[in-house]
Specification:
Blueprint lengths: L23 H49 L50 H11 L19 E9 L2 E9 L10 E5 L6 H8 L1 H8 L2 E5 L24 H17 L6 E6 L1 H12 L6 E5 L10 H8 L15 E6 L8 H10 L6 E8 L5 E8 L5 E8 L6 E2 L8 E2 L5 H9 L11
Helix pairs in contact: 1-2, 5-6
Length: 434
Amino acid sequence: MFRFPKFDPSKLDPSAFGIPKFDPHAFEAAAARKAAGAGGRAARMQAAMARFRRAQEAAVAQWTEARRGMADRPESAGRDSAGQNSAKHDGPTLDMEAPRTAGGAWTAPDQTGGSKPGAGPDLSAMMRALREQMPKTAPAGRGPAVAVPPGARFEERVFTGGAGSRRYKVYIPSGYAGQALPLVVMLHGCTQNPDDFAAGTQMNALAEEQTFLVAYPEQPQSANMQRCWNWYAAGDQVRDGGEPELIAGIARAVLAEFSADPTRVYAAGLSAGGAAAAILAATYPDLFAAVGVHSGLACGAARDMPGAFAAMKGQGAAAGRNRRPVPTIVIHGDGDRTVHPVNGDQVAAQAAPASGLTETVTRDKSPGGMAYTRTVRNDASGTPVLEQWVLHGAGHAWSGGSPQGSYTDPRGPDASRAMLRFFLQHRAGTGTVA
């Protein structure tokens, strides 16, 4: 039997096998270098996050200061029809002014209704850059929560037709039991969505109170980055094409689903949505019995982006009278710095029948203290076919709306209730009071 010498690992020379000899001091130095490297990366990460936080805080501060500046900027004091100074409006505006070139930034209007490139921060570019720096997160909610009473429903649908598809929401009041109800189509303004618009206008609450259906078409960012209805595009001012076809298709889909009354279909909108409602009156007078245009523009006021920029300043193309007038209610603030008040007059002129109207003018003040002038024009039978409200001192916001939604002015008269009252006096194709 062979005898092997006892193995002593301490006498093993690793270099004989190509392995460097262990040096505890070198090992400690390498570990220290590794730790220092990790610490450096952590330090760089912390520095980057600190820079991001500073940029974020600066952007928010700049945004806040710009908003405060717009709110505090003195407005030209308007006068009501009685010659009294109108109240000032310092609330937020809805539509930023259109860019002068494709891909350009949307800018906030100045005190004269124009924009001053270079005079202030480019809020659009600033916020876009900030969004690009921020980590990707789940998309924000659709808007403020909209209360739905027991037995009522507020549901989402998708309409698809020859011009494309659009999502929409429909409010079904608790009193619905299959009867042929009126339908009001509500068209939101730029940056808004159905939930936000429903919360601000409180039209669902009126629908619950007076039992009618409400549909809220939604304009996606894929169609317009600001979610505006493209009222200034020639292809979206025609029948059987573009956005008018989509909105009319949504109205017909709701009529069919809920067996609603086809003679009592109405459309109302704010700003870009108001302009879209005016387009519906011009393109689908057989479908819509009456329309409401709040702070909007006449159909054909612009045919492209430069024209939109001019129209919003009150320099748009003269709109011709509709060949088949649709009863219209117009509401516009004379302190509107986003869509010039002259546009309200142009909407009214476009909607007015050629002749034979009698006129009644009243002046009053809302419970919130806002003065207004209301002009009602009746046809020969005494039917009110055109109603125009000029809100003295009001800016670009839904009058009498709820602060639960964006771009509302609770001080003003209740635009939702005024529109509904006007709507329910009319049926399509009859020309008489309902």
